[in-house]
Amino acid sequence: MSIGRGTATLTLDSNADDSTQLFCEHPDMNKLKLAAAVVVALAAAPVMAADTWIGTANYGAGAETVGPFNTYDFSSGGVLLIKPTSSLTSANGYYQSFVSNHLLDGIEVANPALDAKHYEITVVANFTSQLLPSTPNSNTYQVTGGSFSLWLDKTPDHSFTADSGFNDSIEIMKGTVVSGGGSNYIMGTQQFGGGALQLAVTSYDSSIYNPATIGGGDSIFTLRLGAKVDKAFLDPITSVQGHMVGTDGLKFAADGNLILTPVPEPESYAMLLAGLGLIGAIARRRASR
């Protein structure tokens, strides 16, 4: 297992025909679409600035070797459950989905065995968040921590309705949600929004990834709540990661990806140490005065 950091990204399914129809159902839907786009654009800035890890993944017998790639593209049919705490100013989030494609700089990379469902890669994540001062038409929140993991299964069996098969085989990557935040725009019973996360990969299977130099980065995501296009998918789901939806839970439809970035070069660490040394010297000089 190797130590590193990684980047995850959740995005709104803007290519679906039903999504286009959704935004046309209300005269203010264009405002919602614009608001979500602005949030995503702002949150994406740190990600675009980072270098990406580029390599291959050998998933072993019965699967395939894929690459070069730098991004896991999650299914547009992912689910995020938000459960408020007793304080009503904080909440816990639970997300699960599966990989639909591998990408290299946004372009699909061939993964025929994945397409044929000879194997699957699933993702589970959870996080805690704090509600910040908001307006009547929007909610702003800060993510304070959490965890995520990727799983390889040679016998695809995940089920959203049964809430099973997402973390029952080989764990190939895991890490923590370090920090983040975002906003949701509210229109009646519907919400659209997004934000940014920082993830730290604490371990991954170096026998799968080549080169074994996966590092770190940032993340972005967008979500939908109460959209008619998601009703058939979300309604049968009564729990996520064993957490019941209940009467207080909010089920968001989420689409996303995981962008991998490399471990910083030794020169970067040298610059960091030099910077820390300079700060220490300044502090000592001030103290001596």
Describe this structure in a few short sentences.
With 289 residues, the chain is an alpha+beta fold. The chain contains 5 helices and 17 strands. It is globular, with a radius of gyration of 20 Å.
Q: What is the fold's blueprint, element by element?
A:
Elements: E1 7-10, H1 17-23, H2 29-49, E2 55-58, E3 65-69, E4 71-74, E5 78-84, E6 90-104, E7 107-109, H3 112-115, E8 120-135, E9 138-153, E10 170-187, E11 190-204, E12 209-210, E13 217-225, H4 231-234, E14 239-240, E15 243-244, E16 250-254, E17 256-259, H5 266-288
Antiparallel strand pairs: 1-17, 2-3, 2-12, 4-6, 4-17, 5-6, 5-16, 6-7, 6-8, 8-9, 9-10, 10-11, 11-13, 13-16, 14-15
Mean pLDDT across all residues, rounded? 80
How many domains?
1
Strand order of the largest sheet: 5-6-8-9-10-11-13-16
| Separate helix tally | 5
Percent range of helical residues: 10-25%
Q: Report low-confidence residues grouped into runs of 5 or more.
A: 1-5, 9-49
How far the N terminus sits from the C terminus, by CA atoms, comes to: 49 Å
SSE arrangement, N to C: EHHEEEEEEHEEEEEEHEEEEH
Shape from CA axes?
A: globular
> What class do helices, strands and sheet pairing give?
alpha+beta
Question: Could you tell me the number of beta strands?
Answer: 17
What characterizes the major β-sheet? 8 strands, antiparallel, barrel
Determine Rg (CA atoms, Å).
20 Å
Strand content: over 45%
